[in-house]
Amino acid sequence: MKLRHRVVAHGESIRSVSRETGLSRNTVRKYVRDCDPPSYQQCAPRPRPKLQAFEAQLREMFEADQHRPNRERRTAQKLYEQVSDEGYAGSYATVRRFVRELRGEGSGLDGGFIPLAFQAGDAMQFDWSEEYVVLGGVRQKVHAAHFRLCHSRKFFVVVYPRESQEMVFDAFIRAFAFFEGVPRRVIIDNPKTMVTKVKKGKERDYHDRFLALLNHYVVEPVACTPASGWEKGQVEKQVRDVRGQLFTPILGFSDMGDLNAWLLLRCEEQGSKSHPEQQDKSINDMYAQEHDLLRAVGLPFDGYAEKQVRTRSTCLVQYDRNRYSVPARYAGKPVTIRAYADRIVVICNHEVIAEHRRCFEKNVSLFEPWHYVPLLKRKPGAFRDGAPFVEWQLPKAMDKIKAHYLAEKDGDREFIDLLLLVPEHGLEAVEVACELAVEQGVLRLPVIINLINQLVEPTIDAAPDTQQYPKLETPPKADCKRYERLYSASVETQV
Q1: pTM
Q2: What's the confidence (pLDDT) of residue 105?
């Protein structure tokens, strides 16, 4: 600008300007002739003498990664570390530029996307991710369910031990409760827990139970094209951001319940951040506008996965590589298992016969000892070594009576007779009777039975106050001769 000002505006000669500035006359002449600022144009690619011997290897490794899932593809940093181990002495920046060139080869359209716009209350996106946390001092992998309202960008995250169907149901129930509303559509992938068959275009065969969930909340499913994550790019980006913001460094909690409670607070805090498109408003501001257009949640869906099984002779049913006990009278009978995210419910003839806490370990048997008590009547010898009774935690008074009976010969039968009173009278009455027997220092079974009968027998109401009865106006008079007259009349009749 200074050169053009001196030559064009003040009329100085190019020779004099060149002499005073030290620039060549050709340079001054070029700047005066061209009004655009000068810029450097690279005419040939930068030389890579140190990398030249490794370019073929890097290209082969890069092409091999294209056949792997995105999660398993090596980054430029990983490729640099591998070639460095094999003798490459150059810089990481050179490898990064070379990998960038490899990614840019082709049609040039692979990196382009069309931005999407969603109306308020229209759509929600859902996806899974795998994260690592420390629970109870043990490092383990958990599965995080991600939800995101597409218009307001409000999101919800909850973690589970796996991605089974009952976890999907529980995640949707929690998400709708968190958003306090239901959108018109949900955009999903094609997992087997939701989609049973991928057809041409957007046509899908959905799982019956997943359709029941959608029908309950009146939501339309939209499945993405396979391997086309950009169709739900918001939640895909959320997975990456949440991993860096919440799961890095690795979180540590006592159990999964505490972890989900912490995540719920973080999801609520994220609403105070500014909206990515409307910077003058927060996510909560946009959500407040969208909330009025969401459909009311209503009653929660009964989210369970169902399975028909037959009870084993050991009074156990198996689900997900674990075994759960049922009452002894259902041994060998067909039952229905309903698996929820946190519990197992066993049903027979439309009646709940057993309920257990869900176990996610492998080859574990969960016993309810009361299920096996009726069998002790004809198999008393199994009481001491029976698996359901080994770690049985009885009430304190009953446990003391148990120790007293088992210390005697044939005490097992007496204690089993005591246990058999529970189905008839209830655990509470038997426990109170045992506490009274311990207080009195008399632990014999007849005494305990007597105490139980006193507790469960109906009470007799006290007689009402006789003073409140109506009084006779003419009280009757005693007449002893009346008996003699009646007796004489009866004698004459017999004669």
Answers
A1: 0.71
A2: 61
